[in-house]
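PROTEIN DATA CARD
Card holder: Septum site-determining protein
Chain length: 398
Origin: Neptunicoccus cionae
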Amino acid sequence: MSLNFGRTQLSIPGPSVIPDRVLNAMHRPSPNIYEGELIDMTASLYPDLKTVAQTSHNAAIYIANGHGAWEAALANSCSRGDKILVLVTGRFGQGWADTAKGMGIEVETLDFGMQDDADPQKLCERLKADRAHEIKGVFTVQTDTASSVQNNIPALRKAIDEARHPALFYVDCIASLGCDRHEMDAWGVDIMVTGCQKGLMTPAGMSFVFYNDKAAAVQSKADLVTNYWDWHPRANPERFYQQFGGTAPTHHLFGLREALDMLVKEEGIKQAWARHETCARAVWAAVESWNCLRLNISDPAKRSHAVTTVRSDGDECGRLRHWCEHQGGLTLGIGLGFAEKGEPGWDSVLRIAHMGHLNPVMLMGALGTMDTGLKALGIPHGSGALDAASAVLAQHHA
Ligand SMILES: *Cc1c(COP(=O)(O)O)cnc(C)c1O
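Structure generated from the sequence above:
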């Protein structure tokens, strides 16, 4: 007999929970794509997207997931045979590197493992050694969704500047945008990519490339760019359809409008960052109290505020994930990048998403369900996890 009768919650690190308001905004007949409401509404998205990204530069929208944004960023700024440097801190930097390799770009990686952030010192040394300036771009993720590490973007920028290296700085904010503080312009990010289905709370299917004027200037030399992926007409359209290289993703755009109303107009991006930080700290407090589990990233300053990777010595994580999904109505994330399914270690990792549409009832519901699962499974786990989490939430002041 299962207790699982009620509203379920998806707490995997993307897609995230879609607010009912966003779903309802999408529930409408197809709009005219040549004139009328859709055209004005779409134009209104860009200023709010730029507020979320903290940039005054260019934004291009793609009907694609995050992988599409990776490819778009590369296509507009690189040529076949160019060399790039990718900082790997989990799974997703490597994914971007693989995309680049597939496009004929020469990729060098600096791998920092599954439990650490990218070391600015090592980046600086590598760039100083590149006297001929062969490296055209430095690529990193802000939050690696597999390890849940958060890279220090301003420190990495400083390392590039310290090496006096002209490489463009690319940052993947697919997991972090709208959750972790990000200030594209102030932090000196040249190209930033994100998707709509995580912090932006919209069903998967749209992604975004933000690029500054330095990156725009590089495009004329990039021989990988093709008509469809070209960011210029998307960011500077003379006709509506050019923003999407064809038919607009009509309903996604209405959904995104509602999500941006909630995030930018109603809550405010700084308040959203503060909320995510408090929610993340509540999760960490609970996990630290469960003595059968531990946090993958030991230094709190290096942890994502959008997702937390949790580990156990044995198969506790896998059993707990299974119980929560089938008995508790809570779907937690699988481990990524540690062990493959069926290998030893597969059941020793889980991930808790705390990105996007999240308040205390959802967060305490998730943590309370996990606590219940540990009890039901007879896994010794200590006591006080929920007290520890609620004490953090109680101290929130934005
Ligand atoms: C989710 C994610 C991706 C991949 O996005 P898709 O939409 O699945 O293609 C890339 N990078 C990071 C950091 C992510 O969290």
